[in-house]
Each structure stands twice: as structure tokens, then as C-alpha cells.
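Thread: quick sanity check before group meeting

JM: Hey all, I'm pulling together slides for Thursday and realized we never actually wrote out the predicted structure for the chain we discussed last week. Dropping the sequence here so it's in one place. If anyone has concerns about the input, flag it before I start.
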Amino acid sequence: MKKLILSAAICLSLASCSTYRKAVNSVDENQALVGPTIVLVTSVVFEKAVDDADKMDKALIIKKLADKIVEVSFSKKPTKEEIAVLIASNLPDKSHWTLLASSLSEVYAKYTEKLTDEDVEKSLAVLKNIAASLSLATQRYL
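JM (edit): ok, ran it. Output follows.
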């Protein structure tokens, strides 16, 4: 059920992004939709917590991931696969974390699909927005 809700939320967000992109055709302006998507995606991880201490532990893991994402640099636009590896290597190997990693790399891919390899700054801006949104999603638990 949670996977269905998460999938529906991602599809809704990405569909909204697609409609919005047609209207403004700008990656920078579309990034306004990244935050709500990320907060919703992370909620699945927090729902798996058994108590408040576990929620805090999960929030710390997500916050560390956000910090790691901010630190990365690339000489060309990172691929979805490179981002997936970066994210997965910084998360525990459990189903809800794997789902989070997959969802985050999908969000990155969707928001950067029209960028060329030379659009490094714009793709890094998307990553920084994802990181900021991850940090925001953890605030109430830390």
C-alpha cells in the first residue's frame, strides 16, 4: 500500500512537472516542484520507524545523505545511474531505503532529462535542491 501511495505521489508530481514544463520550459522554474516531491518520498521512510528514536536515526541518515549530495562535483552532467550509485552507497540496504534511493534518482532524472552533458551547473542545482529538500524533510525529527 505504501509503495502504491509513493508511486502515485511521484507520478502525480512528475505529471505536474511535465505540464508545468510545457508552460514555462525552464529547468530552473520547474525546481519549485522538487521540494514537495522529496518530502513526500521521504515520508515512506519515516512511516517505517518504530518509535521517535528510530525516526531520529532515519532523519540523521537522510541528513547525512543530503550533506553528501551537496559535496559532490562533476565535470559533466551526472547520469541517473551515477546519482543512483551515489545515493544507494550512502543509505542502508533495506527495502524502504532502496525505494527512497530509486525515487530520488528518478526525480533527478526527470528534472534533468532535457539538459545536455555541458549543463553541469543546472544539473548540480537540481541536486542541491534535492539535498535541501531532504534536509527540510528531516527538520521535525532532529
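AS: nice. The two ends are 27 Å apart (CA to CA). The chain is about 75% helix and 0% strand.
JM: adding both to the slides.
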